[in-house]
Amino acid sequence: MSSLACRGPVRRGPEVARHLLLLVLALVFLLPFYVVVRNALATPAELASASWVWWPAHPSLDNLRRLFADQNVRFARSLLNSAVVSVLQTVLTVAISAMAGYGLARVPSRASRLVLGLTVLTLMVPTTVTFVPTFVMVSSLGWISSLRGLVVPVLFSAFATFLFRQFFAGFPLELEEAAAIDGAGRWRTFTRVVLPNAWGICSAVGVITFLNAWNSFLWPLLIGQDPAYRTVQVALSAYTSSQRVDVAQVFMGSAVAILPVLVVFVVLQRQLVQGVERSGID
User: Which residues are 245's β-sheet partners?
Assistant: First the structure.
């Protein structure tokens, strides 16, 4: 009995250390969120103070009222623009990537292998390399300061296509053969049999695409030259210039901009992990 009693604390030691490490890492990751919320609720005097306080003495939502009352930046319109662009980009990217990935997985040929290789190759090309030619094309089409210019050029995702291809390559072929015996064509099999069983990977790709679209800055900055087409990230940059930086508005705007992304991630975090696991990516 004494030997067993001695083993208990020894066995619990690594587990306690692991939990402490995870706690420290969680605090490190949560620290930026705390700083944003703390500064968003602070008064201008507290932000300008040289001494640091862990929480404002008088938390206030004046910065929030000022944020939405500013007609020069029009932050509410920017939030709406970001929501529309992110949702459209997410839905269309998932749809296009799912069809492309299914085709690459189920139509084996030299052409499909070549397309898959070129798709993976584009992952190695820095995004900034394609900015100028893409911008020239969008400008020639007259899509500057338009919803089409913000959404259409960024719909293709090599990463999403590859994830879907990996998932569909491991999808049971027997289910599709059973649907074909029942008279279902390729499209009906895809929409009625394959996609309903691909909810995890669709959610994972959707979350990743939504996060990237919401946080995108450089492309909306180039295309949304009209203030009516500013996204939230571009609107936040309006509070910083070479002459002044409105620190209070930057932090409050950042806190508001974080909320939609945080909600999406918390709601779909399980599907995100499961989708990546089922895609066959190690």
Answer: 240
Structurally, the chain folds into a number of domains equal to 2
Co-location of 136 and 211 in the same domain = yes
Query: Is the Cβ–Cβ distance between 145 and 229 less than 8 Å?
Result: yes
Overall size of the chain counted in residues: 282
What pLDDT digit, counting tens, does each position of 191-250 carry?
Answer: 888 988 888 889 889 988 999 999 999 999 999 888 889 999 999 988 887 677 788 888
CA 48 to chain CA centroid, nearest Å: 33
Q: How far apart are CA 90 and CA 92, in angstroms?
A: 6
Range of the domain at 13: 1-60
142 dihedral zone (left: phi>0; alpha: psi -120 to 50; beta): left
pTM for this entry: 0.82
Sign of the alpha-carbon torsion through 31, 248, 238, 240: negative
Nearest of 188, 148, 160 to residue 275 by alpha carbon: 160
